[in-house]
Amino acid sequence: MKTLTVLATGPLTTVQDEGRPGQAALGIGRSGVCDRASAALANRLVGNPPDAAVLEVTFGGLAVRAGSDLLVVTTGARCPGAPHAAPTLLRAGAELRLGAPAGGLRSYLAVRGGIAVPPVLGSRATDVLAGLGPPVVAPGDVLPVGPPTSPPAGVDLAPVADPPAGAVTVAVLPGPRADWFGAAGWSGLVGRPWTVSSDSNRVGVRLDGVPLDRVRAGELPSEGMVRGALQVPPAGTPVLFLADHPVTGGYPVIGYVVDADVDRCAQLRPGQTLRLRGSRA
Amino acid sequence: MRLLPSGSTALLVELDSLDDVLGLYAALAAEPPAGVVDVVPAARTVLLVTDPARTTLAAVADAVRRTTPRPDARADGDSVSLPVHYDGADLAEAADLLSMSIDELVQRHTGAEWTVAFCGFSPGFGYLAQPGAGWEVPRRSTPRTRVPPGSVALAGEFSGIYPRESPGGWQLIGRTDVAVFDLDRDPAALLRPGNRVRFEVA
Fold it and tell me: pTM for this one?
């Protein structure tokens, strides 16, 4: 079997795919790649099916050595040293080293054939909150690469925009508990800028800014939520949930980033400004 | 039944009681509307997660309004027996909080059937309810950083079993040797919403 040997991982590298839909009622979240569009592009460029597993690299730093000739590509945050959005043949024994990206946070390395670690409950995604799926990738790992299933895309370079380094604006819809914060709360959410906290991860992006006040007291029984939820804990600053969000939560969800914009939120770096633009369902 | 927005791909249905949740969940889980990828019951809500490429929220809302809840959902589920060693670190305190003796607590915990109302917190963790039984136990003021796997616990109106070692704020009343979540077993999760559970003294 073809392999890829891991020499270094940077701050966090995990194996990810499209996740585990359909099991949330058992307390098993979906997980999967944080930036779905970038990962899908990477798979397409090397001729993988959409559900092939890739490596999700957080803030660069991954170094790998090919065990045999492998067609590889990186997408998402552009890392110096890697063939960005351009499929490249990595010869047997050759190394690929991803530097730190100048913009964006998460890069995707797809290998033709897919990362073929054993699936857990139907998926190769590592869910860091639930502790499910393959272990976090570590130096010394020898990752199996699967057989190709279809021809490569035949594209030399995919012209995609890099994740922006400055302020990012995304559309937000009212959530199920917007009424817990009243009109003033909504105005605060969509009218003021938020700063991405360093305390962010695959579970969610924590936002710093002017806290939102509740207009009603009481506790909310836990309820289900999905990626994109803006949940407001008692401290009043929202958490924007990403791929490894809990299946249910007990704090009110004031709004939702529209699904098409959530991938871009997965590229936000600590210190970056996020503006939430009010939208209607 | 109230339909609440949950972003561009999901819909939250709010209901009046846990029984209403079980009834609607049982009906939707048996025949999910087209394009719905997850149906997530909770204490007073059912979340429907859609694949936006396959359906619209309006179509799912219509399907939910047309769904007839199963009034017998509680009695319909599979039954599971769980032997428990009632020697939890918080057993005496939980009995105190409920103004009953330890013997009485154990008798009430084992004396009637519980129903898995919903799952969450961690994979395979079921929130077990015994409606009308009057369980109302506050969480510990300081959560434990490490609760041993198999711990049987109480909090609010619920009882639950910790699938693996994790932090937790529930009152620990005992432990079971039965693995409620085991990746080497199919299905990995022993408890699903609607299942009935009877605790026994081990």
Answer: 0.94
